[in-house]
Amino acid sequence: MVRATIAKTPLQAKLKTVPTMSTPTTEVFDDPSMRGGKGERSFINTIGAAYAFDATDLPPSFYDSDIVLLGGTALVPNLHDQQHEIVKKAKEKGCVTVVGTVYDFRNEKASSTGRWPLGSTPSYPFIDILVCDEQEALRLTGTSRVEDAAKQLIAFGVGAFIITRGALPMLLWSSGKLIEPTPLSTLPVSAYLDTLMQKDPSLRKDTTGCGDNFLGGVLVSIAKQLGSGAPLSMVDICAWGAASGGYTCTYHGGTYLENKRGEKAAHLLPVVQAYLRDAGAER
To answer: Keywords for this entry (predicted)?
Structure first.
């Protein structure tokens, strides 16, 4: 199924086969009635063959990229523990480093009170932008309030971050190194999509993949802005993230398979434009 899905995309993928181990899986249980109809999910994760993957499986060409993304590495334990080595090397090679976190089942099982590590040595100083949800931010920092988590992430030395909070406003900050200096502040989710789904409830499917697609929108904005030579706009990054993440609610599952190139972008553009208009930052 994994290979068949990837084959329908333009992605160039290299898959590692480990005959003696099961395919890594996450079972998602969705309840669309939760949070006033916004939806909520529960997960059961099996790490399986992901235990057999680590930094040595990354080819040298991995670091030839303009942007290096490490997403959900907590589901790939050895790679996760080596994350600091990867992002440090990526920065030495001149890459933009983006890290998107995921619920860390392994470290939560080991300790429900200690901080979740982001690498056996902290990776934060080598991360240009960190994207995580509220629960992940709290567990990464060992705090109980999202505002305290944000302050702790700043103290850890991360370049910038966005903390998503489901249907609540996201929390954001930037040191100004790559993304324009941004004080600790909030931006909303997409009002455009909320209104669309309120008018036609049949459009609302499930929330599976919202965080992953938010991160995808962040990548799109960074890639589009990199060539300008100017500091990147945090509002534009959040606009694309909110549009892509929110749009995921309109189809089942986390992967939108295009029938033609640019199909999803055509759906997202009016959402992004409406977001920038509302934020007073239309481009």
So the answer is: Kinase, Transferase
Q: Residue 38: which pLDDT band, with cuts at 50, 70 and 90?
A: low
Give, in order, the Cα–Cα distances in Å from 32 to each of 46, 97, 166.
24, 34, 13
Total count of residues recorded for the chain: 283
**Residue type (1 letter), 235:** V
pLDDT per residue over 92-130, tens digit each? Answer: 999 999 999 999 999 999 999 989 999 999 999 999 999
What domains appear along the chain, each with residue ranges and CATH number? Answer: 54-187 (3.40.1190.20), 189-283 (no CATH)
Rounded mean pLDDT, 40-50: 87
Which residues have a Cβ under 8 Å from the Cβ of 13 and sit 6 or more positions away? 6
Condensed to tens digits (0 to 9), the pLDDT of residues 72-98 reads: 999 999 999 999 999 999 999 999 999
Contacts of 11 (CB under 8 A, 6+ apart): none
CA separation for the pair 149, 217 (Å, rounded)? 23
Interatomic CA distance for residues 174 and 130, integer angstroms: 10
Over its C-alpha atoms, the chain yields an Rg (Å, rounded) of: 18
Residue whose structure tokens are 């909070």: 165
